[in-house]
What does this fold into?
Amino acid sequence: MPTIDVGQYLLVYNAFSFTFATMAAATLFLWLSRSQVGPAYRSALVISGLVTAIAAYHYFRIFESWESAYEVRNGVIQVTGLAFNDAYRYVDWLLTVPLLLIELILVMRLSQSETMSKSIKLGFAAALMIVLGYPGEIADDNATRAIWGTLSTVPFLYIVWELFKGLGASIERQPESVKGLIKGARMLTFASWGFYPIVYMIPFTNMGGGSVETAVQIGYTIADIIAKAGVGVLVYMIAVRKSAVEYGEPGHTVTTAS
It folds into this structure.
């Protein structure tokens, strides 16, 4: 573990604590909000809440690991000898990143065949992206990091293509009241996911070891909050608006003229 100062330790410590609380709160909000949407959109909220629940658990474990890796002695941060376990983060991503794409597909309510096809393709590409990125994350040299980072970029580019080209026509078929929100969710997903490669490349800078470790942990944490809790709220808003169009406002039903 690199040596860090008290300020860096507390910044990461508090960021992990805040993210755990955010993910836990988002989980409760999304699952308790199922009654506010129509039956067709409840699965999207369940999966969205599952994403934040998985993230909350792993951020709790990441928080514990960070706390174990360092200790404060006479106002100075010292390494304990226990390694900080970054694998928690990648296990989290392996589970949640495919689900993030699936929740977006489900809330669009495409045909069954299109939903299944896109979920499988995008879910596999997302898992492959995470698997290819992990060897570079734990590598001791930047050359290895660069190789695996480049390989991980290939499925990432495919996902970006699917989000903007593959889902483009499907988005245009959505109700006018939600088109903007769906495009916003797509853009937020792209922007937050695009932030991960930037953080991944921080070790290539000339910053000191402690500064690199701090920047990487804070960068990934910010991206996670946006990609999971942020997109989850947008998915909820999309589901509410589409439910109002298809089922009527909560407590009312849509009636058709005879």
The chain has a mean pLDDT of 88. The longest strand covers residues 70-73. The chain is about 75% helix and 5% strand. The radius of gyration is 20 Å.
